[in-house]
Amino acid sequence: MYNALLRKGYHDTDPEHVTSMVSVHNFLNEGAWNEIRVWEGLFAKGLGDGWKKCMKGEQGIVESGVMDEADPKLMRFQGRPKEMTPKAAMVQFLGSIYPSRFKTAPPFDRHDWYVERKIGDKTSEVRYVIDYYEAPDDEAGEPVFYLDVRPAIDSPSLAVARAMRWGGDIYYRASGKEVRDAAKETANGGN
Length: 191
Prior knowledge:
Blueprint: H1 2-7, H2 18-43, H3 47-54, H4 57-64, E1 73-79, H5 86-97, H6 99-102, E2 109-119, E3 122-135, E4 144-151, H7 156-174, H8 177-187
């Protein structure tokens, strides 16, 4: 990893920090892969199935175990740290005109991961874009990172999938379903 940093022009890297950097790197990669597994669990069986799952909201998606419903394969990945994704560029622009709501540092890295998706006997390649953001340290002084993982809008169906996931969560919360589900769980004794 140290040699890779030197190749990328990071000459001020202390070799003593490489071990902890590798740990953080592996942690972030595992987090990105888990997010991809959630996306694949939602949409690998098609948009209709994905919409039903998205209607549970983000919390319902996490609790339902969709991550285990698909078996994606990482085909390759590409680091693109100097290229900002359109979404990240838009957030930076919005931060310049509405800083109280959108001001954030730009992502410190970007990757494109290419994943094999199987639907029945067919396989296709889905490109995921990952923006890596640094957040303020937590109360214990530990570093905090935020990953924005989503399928690239390389086809209309991938654009629809992104809209469904966002829209499903908005619907879930705005319709009061979140409150109704919590009341139902309380009435059932938490089961």
